[in-house]
Amino acid sequence: MENKSLEQRMETEPVHRVILSLAVPTVLSMLVISAYSIVDTFFVTRLGSRATGAVGITFALVAWIQAVGYTVGMGAGSLVSRLLGKKEKEQAEQIANSAIMSGLLLGLISLGAGLIFLTPLLKLSGATTELLPYAREYALFVLLSAPFTIETLVLGTLLRAQGRAKASMAGMVTGGILDIILTPVFLFVLNLGVKGAALAAFIGQTVAAMVLGGCFWHGRMKLNGKKQSKNFFKIKDYGSIIKNGLPSLCRQGFASVAAVLLNRQAVGYGDAAVAAMSVDGRLFMVFFSLFIGYGQGFQPVAGYQFGAENKKKLKQAFIFTLWSSIIAAAGIGLAGFLFAPIIMSFFLKEDMAAQIGIFTFRSQCLIFPLIPIGILSNMLFQGIGQQGKAAFLSACRQGIVFLPLIFLLPEWIGLAGVEIAQALSDGLTAIISIPFVFCYFQKSEKKRTKKKTSDGKRRL
């Protein structure tokens, strides 16, 4: 399938087939990434609730590093897809080269700034005196892996934008499997403690970046990164990438802020609450990442068809992706709700922590069928270059909607407010997204009808 160019597939194949061919490898990649996150969590819980809570404290730092990677990757990817739709291949390659360089520079800056401000950042994230030593051990390797993590996200997104989803999957899966194998070895054979899990992740991200880099430069790519070095240093391109990646920055950046506030609110209810929210967050991200991956399969199609001015296929692609996602989300949410006690029993042994984890997880499962609406609405507008709408919708889930809820609900209903804040935010974000999408396609249909009418009159 990938022997055909993206342009050929977009022109000749049904949109649902192209979406699935791009989405399935991406979803599998996200599953592997989530799997090694779960493996880390599972093995770290064997070290006690303090170690589990410490890993949860570092989630804000991880989210910020991912925010940088997704900002550059998704910003460049959406540009590349639209440029390929317009048949502007040389400019698409230029954007890809600039994205790789900016990802490397931002990764090094993140590493340096993180090392300088590590302790204040962890305290701000809710680290208590007891949790701080564990959190520092884990966070150190998270920071060291920042340049590789960012480049992995950038290269993976660029490969998908070219229709090379399988090549993107190869790097992600290789790094993920390596992490899964090394984590128990470092924790229990070499007795490295919580830093062993972070070291395994560091090695996995490094290998993933190397594999993806090899695929990008030496594989059979439309954009092969072999232009002269001056192509890496066009400031205008950097600005375009960041502008188009702003929705991803909002989504992931607010995720970092939300993690800080959630931890700080949970701290007031003890280490058990922090551990429970940490486990719940990582488990729920497994489900959430499935639809992020599915949306990333849809986004290159949206960008290409928009660039090619084929609004009919764009609408078909969105409707297919939305309804298939909602159906899948309903099934996953139902299964998660029913099996929540069993799932939590693998990670949380203390009764208080398990009760908090089960209630929080179930509240999110109830809302889960609505989550694809928010994700795909955001990716639609980012893919077609409407950054303002995309940024606003990205900011809703863990920003505009979530932040007031996480401040107000605990004041009104105590711990239950911490437990249901994210679920309520997800539901409200979906409701807010619907009119944006409806209005866009309504206006698009009117323009298409008007154009057909005018073309018909000219022919007469």
TrEMBL record:
<keyword id="KW-0812">Transmembrane</keyword>
<dbReference type="InterPro" id="IPR048279">
    <property type="entry name" value="MdtK-like"/>
</dbReference>
<feature type="transmembrane region" description="Helical">
    <location>
        <begin position="356"/>
        <end position="378"/>
    </location>
</feature>
<feature type="transmembrane region" description="Helical">
    <location>
        <begin position="390"/>
        <end position="408"/>
    </location>
</feature>
<dbReference type="InterPro" id="IPR002528">
    <property type="entry name" value="MATE_fam"/>
</dbReference>
<keyword id="KW-0813">Transport</keyword>
<keyword id="KW-1133">Transmembrane helix</keyword>
<feature type="transmembrane region" description="Helical">
    <location>
        <begin position="196"/>
        <end position="217"/>
    </location>
</feature>
<feature type="transmembrane region" description="Helical">
    <location>
        <begin position="171"/>
        <end position="190"/>
    </location>
</feature>
<feature type="transmembrane region" description="Helical">
    <location>
        <begin position="317"/>
        <end position="344"/>
    </location>
</feature>
<dbReference type="Pfam" id="PF01554">
    <property type="entry name" value="MatE"/>
</dbReference>
<keyword id="KW-0472">Membrane</keyword>
<keyword id="KW-1003">Cell membrane</keyword>
<feature type="transmembrane region" description="Helical">
    <location>
        <begin position="51"/>
        <end position="74"/>
    </location>
</feature>
<keyword id="KW-0046">Antibiotic resistance</keyword>
<dbReference type="InterPro" id="IPR045070">
    <property type="entry name" value="MATE_MepA-like"/>
</dbReference>
<feature type="transmembrane region" description="Helical">
    <location>
        <begin position="95"/>
        <end position="118"/>
    </location>
</feature>
<comment type="similarity">
    <text>Belongs to the multi antimicrobial extrusion (MATE) (TC 2.A.66.1) family. MepA subfamily.</text>
</comment>
<protein>
    <recommendedName>
        <fullName>Multidrug export protein MepA</fullName>
    </recommendedName>
</protein>
<feature type="transmembrane region" description="Helical">
    <location>
        <begin position="18"/>
        <end position="39"/>
    </location>
</feature>
<dbReference type="InterPro" id="IPR051327">
    <property type="entry name" value="MATE_MepA_subfamily"/>
</dbReference>
<feature type="transmembrane region" description="Helical">
    <location>
        <begin position="138"/>
        <end position="159"/>
    </location>
</feature>
<feature type="transmembrane region" description="Helical">
    <location>
        <begin position="420"/>
        <end position="441"/>
    </location>
</feature>
